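User: Before I run my own analysis I want an independent prediction to cross-check against. Here's the chain; please return only the structure tokens and, at the end, one sentence I can use as a sanity check.
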Amino acid sequence: MPKPPLRLADSAPPLMLRAGGIKKMKGKKMHKKSVVVFDFDGVLTKGGEGLKQKAWDILALPFHPDNADFLAEKRLEFSKGNGSRYDILRETFERFCSDNVEILTAAYADCYNTIVHKLLEQSGMPEGTKETLKTLAKFHTLFVNSATPEKAVRESIEHFGIKHHFRGIFGQPISKVDNLARAQHLAEVDNEFMLFIGDGKSDAKAAEEFGCDFVGIPNDWNKWTTETVKFPLVRSIVELPQLLGL
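Assistant: Structure tokens:
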């Protein structure tokens, strides 16, 4: 399927509509999309922020209660794309030890990654995700754009056996806005032909800043409803083929 030419001068800001306006958006805009970019946690996997919090709780089990509390504070400070697991751990270890901070940070980051992988194995992906990605990949160029370190998200994507569906898999330390630009560069399309799917405020903000449309997935922690957000909502990516006119 030929892709529209790159026309950066024609770039337009994202069109934000309530979920009730999806049909209108679908008819006028969604059928033009040739690139779909997915957040990872909570979009292609179950659990999202809740799974990450459980992983941090498990990691903190050997900690002294005071240090565990400080770790929780840092987790909150650097959450939602404001920093990485390395930032959280580094500042935690700097608080109560002066030697080997970088060694401890790297070791505990690997441990955290292992815990997350085990939890992902238990929770898996939402029903229909693999089939939906297979359908979408026939007609669209797909990317992953995560706040998880790029190496870790690549490992998770490989574990689920869906790597072949994606043109690119992006993560930290590069920001979500810059990762959208990376996807645009590889796909050679203008912003208006791109769609970002996410479940966090940082995802919606990145789409708005970059200048592409956004569709959100509501869950227990973001508490998005058609009354509280201006962008369209879908229950899961399984609804995307219909939204995109496939």
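Sanity check: Residues 49-123 form one domain.
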